[in-house]
Amino acid sequence: MKISGVRTSFALSYTALSHTALSFAALLMGAVALLAAPAQAVAQELKIGYVNSERVLREATPAKAAQQKLELEFSKRERELNDVAARLKAAADKLEKDGATLAPSEQSRRQRELVEQDRDLQRKRREFQEDLNQRRNEELAAVVERANRAIKQIFDGEKYDLIIQEVVFAGPRVDITDKVIRILNAASATPAK
What we know:
This protein is mainly alpha-helical and 193 residues long. The protein has helices at residues 2-45, 53-59, 61-98, 104-157, 177-189; strands spanning 48-50, 162-164. The protein has two domains: 1-45; 48-189, Protein Binding, DinI Protein, Chain A (2-Layer Sandwich), CATH 3.30.910.
């Protein structure tokens, strides 16, 4: 008898709790509905802009100029590395071809030389890549700084409340990327003072 009484009491308590939870949920939903109406009105008054940073760094004249500058600066060194790699490959092919006719000691010596040359080439390639990355970061930082000034100019001039750069989705109505690119292009067309 006691066990069924406990079950009945538990069932009644659970039912009362469920009704209380449902009442609380209904109250909460009503409060959210009341708050949503003013929030929607406030959201409509906000002026929000979005800038696609990747597009700016790809299409703006200063970004293109920075890329050309890097290519010019590093092209000679890259060609030299490619020439060394081609010579190393030719030497490896020659060793493979002539390997059967060489004395074992000569074959071993040439293999060691090739391994050392390859190790040196890989080190030079790593240094080249590190130098290129460092210079790219420096050049892009200058472009990003100019882009941020252009964004700030748009923000102040057109009275935006919020301008963001990283989003999952943005509609064309809030996309101000073209404006930023135009300002950057115009600034780069103007001779430096």
